[in-house]
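User: Structure please.
Assistant: Input sequence and predicted structure:
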Amino acid sequence: MRKARPNAEVLAAPETSPALRQKLASVERIRRFACDHLSLPGNDSYGTYADLGRPYVTWVLYAAPEFSLKPKTWWYPTLGRLDYRGFFREADARELAATLREDGHDVVVGGVDAYSTLGWFHDPVLNCFVDYPEIALAELLFHELTHRRLFRAGDTDFNESLATAYAEEGVKRWLRHENRPADLSNYEAMLVRRNDFYREIDRTRAALDKLYQSGLSAEAMRPRKAKLMRDLQSRFRELRRRWGGRGLESWLDGELGNAHLVSVITYQEHTPVFHKLYRDCGGDPDEFFKRAARMKLPEER
């Protein structure tokens, strides 16, 4: 917050690079659209810019037992229990990860480009994500602004699935508004690839759930689990081939564990429900959030 400067000031400063000036101009256009067409609080966030001097704003840790896809949770004041633990220092995240591994958990730690303070503060644009391609930048801002518009304490799956689905719908609406049919077609093709990815995750999740409920000993389950994870990586390599040989690098480098799956299931668990809700509301943002606030989602994990 101390480093944040108004976007207008950064845009006007002679030392601001043309690339940053272009990105901040895009942010201003995206914020206006969020307010005017998506009923998101774009006037209250991302009106300032901060360079943190590091690639990530936080580091986040996901963990799950060796033979379970039920994530470990942590309790936060005002937020309730969430499926992840966040740190401002990477070393702190790595330290906890080592402890949890010793206790028998699968753990994954990753850098985070952005997060929402849910209205407690006016979130700034950060160097961590300002260089995103414009469409990815819009999706990220719509996602984080959705958290500010509606957040359910203690329900990570609800919050992340809601924000993911609404951001995707928001980007499609934004591209139509800007009359960018080629970009819209490319984005929709990307969403198909994203669904292909999650379909493989769900396939592996179902197989792991069956294994973990089989009653087999840990010694018997361990190699079977490892094979299921290797099979997932093989299918990801096939996806890469179909996509043109790019993507999914972090999923192909090293061994996978339950925490890897938990980290993405959290964001996609109920997105089909919210996409359907958006269609049922005829794309009316206020009606969408009104109904979403009353929804009770099934327990799937």
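DSSP finds eleven helices and eight strands in the chain.
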